[in-house]
């Protein structure tokens, strides 16, 4: 059942259009990420759901109730901010209980809920501390508890982990997902970090320049990006400009070398490129696979993997190999054969 | 570790500045204690404290100062808050407006007030109560640069927009945001603005004397014309008032600023 629905949302600030024709239906309990570079309109869309911005056109409904013009304090939508936004004058317990105090819940109910929320984020012993006595990660957990305490219909998170260091970020990411699952809460998560989006979400909305590029599960987004933008933005990708030799079976040529694409759709004469992820490519030649020869340009050590940069027919291509102890690294300028399975690559139209 | 060499020039300038500042004060204090020949006494102070006009002036000015502070807070906290939230581009205009009381001489301002409000249709100077309303309005304007700046600085240390949005998403309306979130976090700023306004109003002469109200400063001026030792004693008393205000200011700002600045 559709829980949150955004239809034909448009937002313009004067002549600048920030969000254009945004349509999305979210089911109860779903975890949705808005992913995109800064300025793509993802935060503005979230702020419209929260009620901090009003859409120029379009409607927002929660449980079939039109909330497009409802003020933020009447929406019952929990929000977590990048800068935590805890109230500096209040203790952790008062911060968490704030929303209940406003809705004039009884003191016992408030205390009980605060206790429950602090248990949920495993911070019961911090109830009497002030925000300035907590680390960034702890502050953000309190902010999460505060947003959840009002039992919101919807939880919105605006880049909640961006201000934290890598280790805490990872910990808190799992924590957010755990709590979200436990409460079965519909959640919208804004991020520019693809790893966060891929690891957390049920579905991802990839945005660019105010428009939706693709909506899909993490697997769909990564394995079958709909546009060149999505392919480039999510993960690393090799895009080789190729010439179609046979539109019926996806045979293409790259310079003098011939390749076959696993997926190719309707080819309508526009310039196309062959897309393949670096981790799909292996060293050495192999019959039945696409095999290419190229010159080694760079070898970059990344810990668990090694990224090898090649030049094939004047085009760059990179591949990732696992850093196993038996691995013999190629030398720069060496000519190397590589291969990748036919069904691991696809043809994509070149965007303008 | 090498010891820091003593900077003699710095010490020289500090001593010089201290002398410049404290010598006249010491002179006044010394003079105020010499009302009785060949002995140190508090006679001048006794006379001042025994004078009902002093107490009347003191009470009147204190009351006016408190009303001024309340009016200023009610006027400026929401205004500055709104400016931060909705019209940050209006800031330069606000800066200029709030600095006007420094630029326009009080005497010019008072004549303006009298010319406008003592005539029909207002005729505010006909009754004591309406004159007091006029004087409070005047004091609010005179203390505006201090009040505005204090609140402005406090507001700048807060992430006003995000705090407001956080409170709104938790169900607060504008009034609740202001009362529960913004004002408590501006406590220090509001108090410092209030104390400076208090000191300003307590020492304000021109407005009170032209509107003929029994404030403290006109009494001091009157005393200065006719007496020798008592004005010196009064000067020390008003110094003490200012210093108590400043001391209180130090005391309140120590408790809160660190939390305010780091708690965002």
TrEMBL record, chain A:
Catalytic activity, as annotated: ATP + H2O + polyamine-[polyamine-binding protein]Side 1 = ADP + phosphate + polyamineSide 2 + [polyamine-binding protein]Side 1
Name a biological process GO annotation: quaternary ammonium group transport
Q: Name one GO molecular function term.
A: ABC-type polyamine transporter activity
Q: Which UniProt keywords apply?
A: ATP-binding, Cell membrane, Membrane, Nucleotide-binding, Translocase, Transport
Do you know which SUPFAM superfamilies this protein is assigned to?
Answer: MOP-like, P-loop containing nucleoside triphosphate hydrolases
Assigned GO CC terms = ATP-binding cassette (ABC) transporter complex
Start and end residues of each ABC transporter domain = 4-234
| Gene3D superfamilies for the chain | 2.40.50.100, Nucleic acid-binding proteins, P-loop containing nucleotide triphosphate hydrolases
Recorded hits in InterPro entries, A to Z, give:
AAA+_ATPase, ABC_SmlMolc_Importer, ABC_transporter-like_ATP-bd, ABC_transporter-like_CS, Mo/tungstate-bd_C_term_dom, NA-bd_OB-fold, P-loop_NTPase, PotA-like
Among Pfam families, the record links this protein to: ABC_tran, TOBE_2
Q: Which EC number(s) does the record attach to this protein?
A: 7.6.2.11
- Residue ranges annotated as transmembrane are none
Q: Which family does it belong to?
A: Belongs to the ABC transporter superfamily. Spermidine/putrescine importer (TC 3.A.1.11.1) family.
- Known function: Part of the ABC transporter complex PotABCD involved in spermidine/putrescine import. Responsible for energy coupling to the transport system.
Q: How does it assemble?
A: The complex is composed of two ATP-binding proteins (PotA), two transmembrane proteins (PotB and PotC) and a solute-binding protein (PotD).
Name of the protein:
Spermidine/putrescine import ATP-binding protein PotA
From TrEMBL, chain B:
Places the protein is found: Cell inner membrane; Cell membrane
Q: Which residues form the ABC transmembrane type-1 domain?
A: 58-250
Q: Which UniProt keywords apply?
A: Cell inner membrane, Cell membrane, Membrane, Transmembrane, Transmembrane helix, Transport
Under the cellular component aspect of Gene Ontology, which terms does the record hold? plasma membrane
* GO process annotations (BP): transmembrane transport
What family does the Swiss-Prot or TrEMBL record give for this protein? Belongs to the binding-protein-dependent transport system permease family.
- What's this protein's name? Spermidine/putrescine ABC transporter permease
What is the organism lineage in this UniProt record? Answer: Bacteria, Bacillati, Chloroflexota, Chloroflexia, Chloroflexales
